[in-house]
Specification:
It comes from Marihabitans asiaticum. It holds the Pfam family Glyco_transf_4. The protein is of the alpha/beta class. The chain folds into two domains: 212 residues, Glycogen Phosphorylase B (Rossmann fold, 3-Layer(aba) Sandwich), CATH 3.40.50.2000; 156 residues, Glycogen Phosphorylase B (Rossmann fold, 3-Layer(aba) Sandwich), CATH 3.40.50. It has 14 helices and 14 strands. The chain has an eight-stranded mixed β-sheet with strand order 3-4-2-1-5-6-7-8, with helices on both faces. Helix 1 packs parallel to helix 14, helix 8 packs across helix 12 and helix 11 packs across helix 13. The longest helix is centred in the N-terminal third of the chain and has 25 residues.
Length: 400
């Protein structure tokens, strides 16, 4: 059950004592995505509640150093890893001493009680090294990176696989946004137990202006323009709708932008497919409010914050059956859950909502009610309880 708001504040500031938390993230602002949003909002909520928190994240060579983001100190730390080529190995040997010193300095200056890895990658390997050196307790949150990474990092890297297994063997608590992610960690990486901590959403987010689109029903999708998000599947479904009134708006940016434009041209949809680019939170909220249907057509989705954003906007939702969304979306009650790989099935779900406004309104109303249980304050409160237990040395079995 979700904690009540007052309970969350108690967890973060009261009876369980102050715990200094380093959120060790694979990526962070100014980059965008589900992990970046999750860590940013959790850090902000913990900080507002009086928790001593910093974000340590991967320096991508941009020289960002240390910054203040929403009142939270963010350290962009070098995280070189070994590679197979001689040139890459040479670069690692030159960079490794500086990287090790930067991570040790961050630990020495902040003195965290808990190292909370968010999305295991190079960041997780460095946090694991600090855990060995300093005995600072580990908490690991997987966001589906072992299953749904567009670039297959865990399939390609034996180091990442071994590092995650070792981290799980040493961690106090492992969490994930869905049971399906935990199942993968159990079956392939030695996890026993695990805790589901869902994603969240701002319930009272400001709303920006909707995008200017031609008249007609608007089907909206939002996310990184990468293959795993399945926006090409959405275009196939819209083509199968065979309704020239329907406009498709896709918010986000990524490597598949040109491929989607080419696909739209092949399908004869160029005039009706609108790639909106990267959207601010305000713009997402505005676009959601203006849309007739929100679709999450992912080939695999660990959770799907977009679903919560659709519920918050009061817009009917169509979600993918692949991944963690069926764990919290009740098919036919507060959304429709379909297989987006089947263009006819996805088209049928979209058509059904566009042609049955009463059904669409009922789904949207149920979603608006459900979203109240998914505030970022609730997510941060659950983490705070985990941090307090980990910092105090409490365990419930390895990885439990």
């Amino acid at each position: 059950m979700m904690a009540r708001a007052g309970d969350e504040r108690d967890c973060m500031t009261g009876t369980q004592g102050r715990v200094r938390v380093a959120l060790v993230a694979s990526s962070f602002h100014p980059h965008t995505g589900g992990v970046e949003q999750h860590v940013r909002q959790v850090a902000t909520e913990l900080s507002r509640a009086g928790v001593d928190v910093e974000v340590w994240t991967v320096d991508r060579g941009e020289g960002l150093g240390e910054q203040d983001v929403d009142g939270v100190r963010v350290r962009y730390l070098p995280t070189p890893l070994p590679a197979r080529s001689a040139a890459a190995l040479g670069r690692l040997l030159r960079a490794a001493p500086r990287a090790a010193a930067a991570w040790r300095r961050a630990h020495r200056e902040f003195r965290p009680d808990v190292l909370h890895v968010q999305c295991f990658g190079p960041n997780g390997l460095y946090a694991l090294a600090l855990n060995h050196l300093t005995r600072t307790p580990l908490v690991v949150t997987s966001h589906g990176e072992t299953v749904a990474d567009d670039y297959g990092a865990f399939d390609r890297s034996a180091l990442l696989r071994a590092g995650l297994r070792h981290a799980i063997s040493r961690t106090r608590v492992v969490t994930a946004p869905s049971e399906l992610v935990l199942e993968d960690l159990r079956s392939r990486f030695g996890l026993h137990g695990g805790v589901v901590v869902p994603n969240g959403v701002h319930l009272d987010a400001p709303v920006g202006d909707p995008p200017a689109l031609p008249p007609g029903p608007v089907v909206l999708a939002v996310g990184r323009l990468e293959r795993m998000k399945g926006f090409d599947l959405l275009l196939d479904a819209v083509a199968a709708l065979d309704d020239p009134r329907v406009q498709v708006a896709i918010g986000g940016d990524g490597s598949q932008r040109e491929a989607l434009k080419d696909q739209a041209a092949r399908l004869g949809l160029s005039e009706r497919v609108h790639l909106l680019g990267r959207l601010s939170d305000r713009d997402v909220a505005g676009a959601m409010r203006a849309a007739d249907v929100v679709v999450v057509p992912s080939r695999w989705e660990a959770f799907g914050i977009v679903a919560l954003e659709a519920w918050r906007a009061g817009t009917p939702l169509v979600a993918s059956v692949h991944g963690g969304m069926p764990e919290f979306i009740r098919d036919g009650v507060d959304g429709l859950v379909v297989d987006p790989v089947d263009p006819e099935a996805l088209a049928s779900a979209i058509r059904g909502l566009l042609e049955a406004p009463i059904t669409a309104a009922d789904l949207a109303a149920a979603g608006s009610e459900r979203v109240r249980h998914y505030s970022w304050g609730s997510v941060a409160g659950r983490y705070a309880t985990i941090h307090a237990g980990a910092g105090a040395g409490a365990t419930a079995g390895v990885g439990a």
